[in-house]
Amino acid sequence: MASPDTSRKDFPKLKAHIDALKSQGVSVTPDASTRHLHNGMDTSLPPADLHGAYVNNRPLPTEGIANRRAWIIGSGIAGLSAAFFLIRDGHMPAGNITFLEERDIEGGSLDGAGNAEDGYIVRGGREMEMTYQNFWDVFSEIPALELPRPFTVLDEYRIVNDADKNWSKARLLEKQGQIKDFATMGLSKRQQLELVKLLLARKEDLDDITVEEWFSEGFLNTNFYTFWRTMFAFQNWHSVLEMKLYMHRFLHLMDGLNDMTSLVFPKYNQYDGFVRPLMSWLKEQGVNIQYDTIVENLEMKTFGDNRTVAAIQCRGSEGDKTLNVGERDLVFVTTGSMTEDTAYGDDNTVPQLKENHEAGLGSGWQLWKNLAQQSEIFGRPEKFCGNIPGSTWESVTLTCKPSPLMDKLKELSVNDPYSGFTATGGIITFTDSAWLMSFTCNRQPHFPDQPDDVVVFWVYALLMDKPGDYVKKPMPECTGQEVVAEMCYHLGLIDQLDEVAAATKTRVALMPYITAQFMPRAKGDRPWVVPEGCTNLACIGQFVETHNDVVFTLESSVRTARIGVYSLLGINKQVPDIYPGQYDIRRLLRATRTLNNDAAFLGEGLLRRILGGTYFEHILPLGPDEKPEELSRPGLFEQQVQALRDLVEDNRTLEEARDWVKGVLSKLRGRP
Ligand SMILES: Cc1cc2nc3c(=O)[nH]c(=O)nc-3n(C[C@H](O)[C@H](O)[C@H](O)COP(=O)(O)OP(=O)(O)OC[C@H]3O[C@@H](n4cnc5c(N)ncnc54)[C@H](O)[C@@H]3O)c2cc1C
Fold it and tell me: Taking the C-alpha atoms of 361, 364, 368 and 373 in order, what is their torsion angle to the nearest 10 degrees?
């Protein structure tokens, strides 16, 4: 990508506006949740959460960019995206950018390796979504894998997903392979209220509170929570604040939570699908990468409240070295990694965590801890990496030749798994599994070189300390083949285990920090992207504070990288706040109905009475068997008034709701 070799003074006819914009400054990370959006003299443009073509403007180069260098520590998607934004929006010559990566391959958590003989391995699959605005911005410019230029990864992705909608016909299983009803969320009124309370709660009131502290035990046994925890990998002891942020971020997807119709998936594994094309583009531009290089610490100079990285201390195959960093050079550091210290196993090998597996010894954590020792602006890494049992789970990748397992897979899939189209359509969970095991088979082939008769299949479980129902051992103590046995038991295939085992190769990945980003946290535990006073350092990745975004997504890592680049370079362009689906009344009404098990919610009768037959009729949600012409049918309003009357007369739930509303009102009025 050719960068114009220009500075602002080269545009005399725009100079006045360029100078005005410069002195006015642009808030790089506006927070749409803190103020009422309106138009007026006091509002800057564009609105905080504007998305779409208008925000795709190309900013002008900042002064002296050709003479600045960037060091990017970690080549996961956050690091790779930082390089992308430096080149595209910062106009930095690619040759000025250097990655320092501890491994011998880029991609970090985005992996995909192996072959049909030894077995393929992916530590995870990627459930994705159309409003990954920053992620899709990157991949709308990266040349496609299989289509010729000018087509992009996004173009290719759209062809596959638009033609082949994702859905699941067997989201939940029980009793050795029987499909369990997953049509509704199974939430009682009281449990719905618990969710509403969480949505209404202020973020700052949820420090260090866990999911199980917030919700009742009954809630934790609902379909809703089973969908939720298995799809996003939440544990009961994780942060309820993260759960809240997910609800806001993905509210527009609530009605696809059960059958996974809200999701999109890549054609191949995430390494071939995203890392390979992005890295080829970056290399084509001229970036440098130093593999096998562990960064141990950053030396900083402080001037008053300011802090500037002056040197990077690292260790490589040739020993220790110190890289000097100029005052105007930039450093991007990936603090922490969810896949650090992954232990691997196979058919006959149990994965072994590092012998001295004191929490947080890996290089990503160590670097973050060293920074945190220098100043509290870098947060408290131990809150995330300090509880290995709380943040571990395991996945197993199966490389399968035809066997009874493939026959069962066909039965549970929405298309023939060998057809290239969606197979299971996301994970399928065994609800009565002591490990809480799930499996998925994405579109095949999952690897570009995969033979036609091979299917790649992925299994994971959440509960690591419970003995299995068949193998009677906790999952981390099992070989890959023992995991296959446990799965066959839950699929009703235990009598055919020998046949399945002979046709299946396994590769195991035990990840001690896979959900570290969900551990309970409080204000100040994570650094801001550009911590206060830092002049040339940005923290990127999953363990970084942003206004409203969630963690454990590709999108959030890319967002942090973009914020870092714009902030450090002083680019006059905003990174929009999260997708504003939560403010869309249609989505809100739909989500409310979904959470109410698809039945009309309280007040829907009144809404129908007001809006039925008007232009806005279409915002009203329909029940599963309802037709639009039934919307203005009389009856629901009267029924709901009667239901309300009954509730007022003798229902505890409403009393509680009333007390709670009273409490909120008192709080608002400043009363204790
Ligand atoms: C099993 C699994 C399933 C997932 N599922 C989904 C999903 O369904 N949908 C979704 O959107 N997202 C999903 N994710 C999350 C997403 O993949 C991650 O959030 C994202 O890839 C993290 O990227 P990152 O660049 O922030 O960090 P990482 O990918 O962890 O990269 C960190 C990099 O830094 C390097 N590094 C660390 N310390 C040092 C050091 N001191 N010196 C030099 N190099 C260092 C590491 O080697 C690594 O390359 C999943 C992740 C996993 C692991």
Answer: 40
Q: Which segments in the chain show pLDDT lower than 70?
A: 1-9, 355-357, 632-634, 647-657, 660-661, 664-665, 667-672
d(CA 87, CA 80): 11
- Strand 119-121 versus strand 294-303 pairing type: unpaired
User: Which run of H or E residues covers position 394?
Assistant: strand 393-400
The answer to whether the Cα torsion of 618, 621, 623, 624 is positive or negative is positive
Cβ 564 under 6 angstroms from ligand 1: no
In contact, 353 and 510? CB cutoff 8 Å = yes
Q: Whose CA is nearest to atom 33 of ligand 1?
A: 74
- SS3 at position 52: coil
Span from the CA of 493 to the centroid of ligand 1 (angstroms): 35
For ligand 1, the distance from its centroid to the CA atom of residue 336, given in whole angstroms, is 9
Q: How is residue 100 written in tokens?
A: 């320092």
Q: Is 312 in the pocket of ligand 1 (CB under 6 A)?
A: no
CA separation for the pair 513, 518 (Å, rounded): 10
**For the CA of 135, the nearest atom of ligand 1:** 11
> Atom of ligand 1 at shortest distance to CA of 79?
25
Q: List Cα–Cα distances, 503 to 194, 409, 495, 497, 499, in angstroms.
A: 47, 14, 15, 10, 7
Ligand 1 center to residue 379 CA distance, Å?
19
Which residues form the catalytic set? 127, 246
Beta carbons within 8 Å of 146's beta carbon, 6+ residues apart: 156
Rounded percentage of the chain residues whose pLDDT exceeds 90: 82
How do beta strands 306-316 and 119-121 pair?
unpaired
CA distance 437 to 416: 23
Rounded to 5 degrees, φ, ψ at 79 are: -65, -45
Q: Indicate whether this model's pTM tops 0.85.
A: yes
Which residues on adjacent β-strands are paired with residue 461? 394, 437
